[in-house]
Amino acid sequence: MPVPVSDDTPSPLLLLLPLLSRFLTPPAHLSARLTKTQLLIVTALSYHESFHMSQLAAYLSFSKEQATRAAAPLVEAGLVERFAQSENRTRVFLRLTAEGKTLADELRAQFSSHLKARVSTSLSESEQLELREAAETLVRLLSKI
Q: What is d(CA 54, CA 7) in angstroms, rounded to the nearest whole number?
């Protein structure tokens, strides 16, 4: 379910992005066209109905220019669309297209699969339990923010 985002508050999940982004890789048919930054944009938009450029930049700790440059090829590829709201036409917003939502679902499934495989081969059963409990605590606490 999309979640509204305030204008100036970056997500606490930013702390996890460097660790978790290594599990994000584009599907084979898009691997030559999408960068890690663009995959992060698609992923961020999959959790929020829309972002304006400043929100997206703050959410992902990018400069507004970096976010704008990274989003342009996503628009050209038909994965993201730009739009303006009638009450303020100067702000450009982004949202996923149907094709972008399909890609986000693929990325989420791939991410989950890679993470589960790494956890099961890299951690002992007690470490897996510890990680699961820590993740549950993290999600519970972040949901209060």
A: 7
